[in-house]
TrEMBL record:
<dbReference type="InterPro" id="IPR023214">
    <property type="entry name" value="HAD_sf"/>
</dbReference>
<dbReference type="InterPro" id="IPR006357">
    <property type="entry name" value="HAD-SF_hydro_IIA"/>
</dbReference>
<dbReference type="GO" id="GO:0016791">
    <property type="term" value="F:phosphatase activity"/>
</dbReference>
<dbReference type="GO" id="GO:0005737">
    <property type="term" value="C:cytoplasm"/>
</dbReference>
<protein>
    <recommendedName>
        <fullName>HAD-IIA family hydrolase</fullName>
    </recommendedName>
</protein>
<dbReference type="Pfam" id="PF13242">
    <property type="entry name" value="Hydrolase_like"/>
</dbReference>
<dbReference type="Pfam" id="PF13344">
    <property type="entry name" value="Hydrolase_6"/>
</dbReference>
<dbReference type="InterPro" id="IPR036412">
    <property type="entry name" value="HAD-like_sf"/>
</dbReference>
Length: 327
């Protein structure tokens, strides 16, 4: 039975999982539209409103509305509302949609530390620069509480990895010494909120980043499926901490059609792996064996060890072929 048949919803990351630079990744649209279970989109990107995200999903052929989108901007606003009095002043570093969410929540949005805001709310926006970051740092140094939508250090784009919100947050942390309260993944709140939207009792969290998507799904006590289409690739999986390890690994979205046994770490594709001192030796395979089959074979051994392997040593033609592509 396929993984899609053993779960009742998909909680989907966007960048690097569903799309890259707004362009759908291979097989994603067909799988989501034909899987027969509801999809909720859970994104750490706070630069777009839920409606904007829904519109973009519609443009690539997915039937989605704003009520099926959960953003880290929404999540951090919810936390701030619980901490701050109604009508409090907040300095928002981020997109206009983030500022609108703050206003809708009853906050007074200001632009300057001179307005003595009660809090600084920071989310991803490509226009953020020195002036906004400096106002945030000044406000925090004057006693404002600090909240961040998410701490992703990088952002996948069609040209490669760009600066993420976490890297911009790091500038303020370096200046103030204050760490923000973060609402986004890997915190579990967004996942549990997303599952509730569709009354899901057996959700599957799907993502491309181990430290956010997978840790977040694991923190929410959900099954996790890692796709090798974005940030965290083969070597990151081999070195993953127990908290970062997904239940299932797929080369891409199409492998959601695999059975749970096929997608879990374990020997497959004719490959065999074993520890030899500090290294893992990978043998076997054939001309039809795939890279992800070799990876799952290695992961079963690597994750059973006390420490990550020093090197992966390919000892067959098929093993050399696939390992040479790992990064």
């Amino acid at each position: 039975m396929s993984i899609l048949k053993t779960h009742d919803s998909l909680l989907l990351d966007l960048d690097g999982t569903v799309w890259e630079g707004g362009q759908a990744l291979q097989c994603v649209v067909d799988v989501i539209n034909s899987c027969g279970i509801p999809a909720v989109y859970v994104t750490n990107n706070a630069s777009r409103s839920p409606q904007t995200v829904a519109d973009m999903l519609g443009e690539i052929g997915l039937d989605a509305d704003a009520h099926r989108v959960v953003t880290s901007a929404q999540a951090v606003i919810k936390i701030a509302r619980e901490d701050l009095p109604a009508g409090a002043k907040v300095l928002v570093i981020g997109a206009e949609s983030f500022r609108a969410l703050a206003r809708d929540a009853g906050f007074i949005v200001v632009d300057s530390a001179d307005d003595r805001p009660a809090a600084v709310l920071q989310g991803m926006d490509k226009s953020v620069g020195w002036e906004q970051l400096s106002e945030g740092a000044l406000a925090i140094n004057q006693g404002a509480k600090y909240y961040a939508s998410n701490l992703d250090t990088s952002l996948p784009t069609e040209r490669g990895m760009a600066v993420g919100n976490g890297s911009l947050v790091a500038a303020i942390v370096s200046t103030t010494g204050v760490e923000p309260v973060s609402a986004g993944k890997p915190e579990p709140a967004m996942f549990t909120q997303a599952a509730k939207l569709v009354n899901s009792s057996k959700p599957l969290a799907v993502g491309d980043r181990l430290d956010t998507d997978i840790v977040g799904g694991n923190n929410a006590a959900m099954d996790t499926f890692h796709v090798l289409t974005g940030v965290s690739r083969e070597l990151a999986l081999i070195e993953a901490t127990p908290e970062e390890r997904p239940n299932f690994i797929g080369a891409g979205f199409h492998e959601l059609s695999l059975s749970e046994a096929q997608a879990r770490p374990g020997a497959q594709g004719g490959f065999r792996a074993r520890f030899d001192g500090y290294d893992i030796v990978l043998q076997g395979g054939n001309e039809k064996s795939t890279s992800v089959e070799a990876l799952r074979t290695v992961l079963e051994v690597a994750w059973a060890g006390a420490e990550p392997p020093r090197y992966i040593q390919p000892r067959s033609e098929a093993a050399e072929r696939v390992v040479s592509t790992w990064r």
